[in-house]
User: Which sequence fits this backbone?
């Protein structure tokens, strides 16, 4: 044990090279230079990869509801809202999984699916003008 302590003491007695004195200052400059890049990455995450206006086309596969409705939705920071008429609420997670609820007058529907890049698809179901209907949806980002 004594021999090991002596070797550490001998190492500590070595003078530090002059360049080592500048290491903390260089580290501080590196941190300051990296801050804008980290700030940009944080803004990108906060705005979301799926932000924008999405045009969603609904197709009815079950029920007596009209098919082919086209509705614009807005995604900002992972939140889905209406870009046109009606009340729309929902969310998109980082992986692109989307969940939405829509109501217009007495009609109500909910749906889910996935967005990837500028496209998306999923399924919906609801009560539209008194009829129970369900189907699929496809979306493109404008």
Assistant:
């Amino acid at each position: 044990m004594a021999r090991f302590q002596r070797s550490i003491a001998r190492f500590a007695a070595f003078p530090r090279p002059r360049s080592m004195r500048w290491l903390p200052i260089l580290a501080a400059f590196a941190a300051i230079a990296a801050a804008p890049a980290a700030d940009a990455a944080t803004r990108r995450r906060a705005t979301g990869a799926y932000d924008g206006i999405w045009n969603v086309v609904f197709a009815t596969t079950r029920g007596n509801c009209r098919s082919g409705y086209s509705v614009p939705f807005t995604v900002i920071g992972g939140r889905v809202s209406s870009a046109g008429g009606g009340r729309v609420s929902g969310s998109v997670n980082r992986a692109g999984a989307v969940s939405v609820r829509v109501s217009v007058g007495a009609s109500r529907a909910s749906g889910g699916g996935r967005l990837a890049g500028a496209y998306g698809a999923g399924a919906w179901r609801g009560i539209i003008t008194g009829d129970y209907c369900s189907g699929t949806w496809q979306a493109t980002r404008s």
